[in-house]
Amino acid sequence: MSTPAPSRTRTTQTHCPYCSLQCGVTMTAGDRPATLVPADFPTNRGGLCSKGWSAPELLDHPERLTRPLVRATPGDRTSPFVETTWDRALDVVVTAIRGTQAAHGRDAVGCFGGGGLTNEQAYQFGKFARVALRTSQIDYNGRFCMSSAAGAANRAFGLDRGMPFPLADLADADVLLLVGSNPADTMPPAMQHLDASREKGGRLFVVDPRRTATARAAEVHLQALPGTDLALANGLLHIAIAEGLVDEQYVAARTTGWDAVRAGVQAYWPDRVERLTGVPVAQQRRTVLALAGAQNAIVLTARGAEQHRNGTDTAQAWINLALALGLVGRPGSGWGTVTGQGNGQGGREHGQKADQLPGYRMLADPAARAHVAAVWGVDPADLPQPGRSAFELLDALGREVRTLLVLASNVAVSAPDARRVLRRLGELDFLAVSDFFLSETAELADVVLPSAMWAEEDGTMTNLEGRVIRRRRALDPPGEARDDLTLLADLARRLGSGAHFSADPETVFAELGRASAGGRADYAGITWARVDAEQGVFWPCPTPDHPGTPRLFLDRFPTPDGRARFLPVEHTDPHETPDREHPYVLTTGRVMAQYQSGTQSRRSRSLALVAPAPRAELHPDLAARHGIAHDDVVELTTRRGKARFTATVTDAIRPDVVFAPFHWGGGSSANALTDPALDPVSRMPAFKTCAVAVARVGGPAEQVPAPTSQPAALVLETVPRTPLTPTRRRTAAVKSTPRFLQGVFPLIGQGLTKPGPVDPALTYTVPAGASAQALYFRGGNSTAELVYVLLVRDGEPVRWFPIGAKGDVHVPLRVVEDLPGGSVVTLHVAAPDGVTGELVVDLGLVEV
């Protein structure tokens, strides 16, 4: 049964609400505000990023929705919102649903879900659409995240699980190849697994058009042009064949389709691949030789490779390479994809997708329909057929789809061609949104329903490894906010289907297990009790006595013949290529201190200090060509619209590429620019490449002064400080040594926007003729507030270390570039004004 809300302060073991690592945390809650510290969970091992540390800030945020909202004038979305009762709000929603379906048919009502929903909520939402509404029109924002990798894995292996092995396997890899992934910024605690590999002599190779924090840690950075990753993969396979590096025994025993792929990649000779991608032949050869020569090697792809019109084929090309080298299904080796959203894996397994039923069953399969219908107690003939994919569903709004119910998604910011989507939302007859803040999508709604947040609900999530974990309720929702299971059960009851829907999450999970039984994502043997006792359970787990499956494909693949499938794939130009009007390539992505559409992270006091506004990255050559200086305001223009950003001029990006983060809406909406061209298999939009023009529209003085973005985050104001004497010492001497900056110091906060040196003695100058590498940072904070320690190099911050209230942190630092001779390293601190306490700092460096 659901965990009762606590009546007094207690600690609760749960998980961070953000990315797919689902880092373990320990919450202390009862009387608000709640606090958390990282736990020793297998994915994070005591680590936590700034998003996780700051997550409790949002639980009591003044903008939390606590009562349902309706329009003062029904049907007029220009009229203001007014608070109302749940009964009235649900009556309005149900009346709109019934009216729409009576006038236009069942499929005129649509549902749009999110990858942050728990497994129970995602399952219930899919069931609600197909049983209570009997509509085919449901999809979710995970279509914008994992769908291309999922499509490729299903074709090649017969099953899609982001990582077919535990994350800890990365630590034992001799060679890691990351393609379009930047975990140093997007999921920093994962870097300790990569660092552990490097400490054992492991080698890291990164494919990315930007020299990200992850790429700076790599032995080789393959700086490919966006949209050419498929050509690069085929080129590496061409070299492997030419050099006799293919594992012929593995290919013969465990795969099919090799001959067609071998013939197809003959056209990808190294010089041609260099012309297509910009990756030098020497780097291509070095990468292939490293992968083939390693005892354990892993290839990981992510959104940079997958969010393209040919994203499924691109993921397939990297799978082909991994299969040819005999990596997949070999302990310590393999191919995987890095899931993005917190429940991006579980969210796509149990019925939110337009074409799927629980357990990864396909909706068009008669046997699957019969099995799930029996669990649901309905006639299989009453289940609708597959509906539209996410963008196609949004593009049908106001026409074929007249009423939309949105849970845990901010499509006004996250969808491609965002202004087109905004027009479609405005053309709806009725829009209802469940959220915990008034997001850009909720602002357009007729009814807004206040939702519980992560610490206020029970359920399960499935992380990037396929590990089912428990999200535990630590405190009550504020005001009248409700969890989405209760919302869906109430709506179903009012629509006459109440007998089919429970609001109890453990009951729903048990039903999910029965519905998934025998499917590819089989949860039948998983219970909440097992998850609690075993630090999570890996699916498939078909029976209660089954141990779960941490590693897939060890003996066979879940295909009819037990073999993996090679599939030949060809490079094609992106849907849009540069021309005279739009001479550059735009690519989009994330920054460390923001998350997805920014509904949560943009409201975080702490995260806003690090990344308060969106910044576009431009190469110095491109900037000079257009008279753009660092911090100028630039306007990016594509065939779909315009958006303005502050310029970051950096040689970390290719001269022909512009980068923009997608966490903001309005006049700085990167997705107002992106291309909605869809992958024919996954229906993934082409977020990662389109043609763009760049123009300077103003200087720094013409915008509101604000701190810059990560890594040059806060503006370092010069704050006069009296040198502080350490209250305790870790060593006999307080001053820095050539290898360590450490001590325990009194902390006096002067404002989170006013960082200053922890102590003048904490300074290290790299000797002339040498270089240094920062290896780790450890810190402790005795105050009741979140504070930041900044690693500053030559006056510019290069890393941020959030330390939670009364918490500590240990961060491996192999993601910091080498520090050349003459570099000056200092530690600064930012804390709320007036806060006092003690600060522990310990920065370890080594001269090389």
Secondary structure: elements and pairs:
Blueprint: E1 10-15, E2 24-29, E3 35-38, H1 50-54, E4 69-71, E5 81-83, H2 86-104, E6 109-113, H3 119-132, E7 138-140, H4 147-157, E8 175-179, H5 183-186, H6 191-199, E9 203-207, H7 213-216, E10 220-222, H8 229-242, H9 248-254, E11 255-256, H10 258-264, H11 270-277, H12 281-293, E12 297-301, H13 303-306, H14 311-324, E13 334-337, E14 356-357, E15 361-362, H15 366-376, H16 390-395, E16 403-407, H17 411-414, H18 418-426, E17 430-435, E18 447-450, E19 459-462, E20 467-471, H19 484-494, H20 505-516, H21 528-534, E21 537-538, E22 564-565, E23 584-589, H22 605-610, E24 615-618, H23 620-625, E25 633-637, E26 642-649, E27 657-661, E28 675-678, E29 685-686, E30 690-698, E31 740-748, E32 756-757, E33 763-765, E34 771-781, E35 787-793, E36 796-803, E37 808-812, E38 819-820, E39 824-830, E40 836-847
Parallel strand pairs: 6-7, 6-16, 8-9, 8-12, 9-10, 11-22, 12-13, 16-17, 17-18, 23-27, 24-26
Antiparallel strand pairs: 1-2, 2-3, 4-5, 4-18, 14-15, 19-20, 20-21, 23-30, 25-26, 25-30, 28-29, 31-40, 32-39, 33-39, 34-37, 34-38, 34-40, 35-36, 35-39
Helix pairs in contact: 3-19, 3-20, 4-14, 8-11, 8-12, 8-14, 15-20
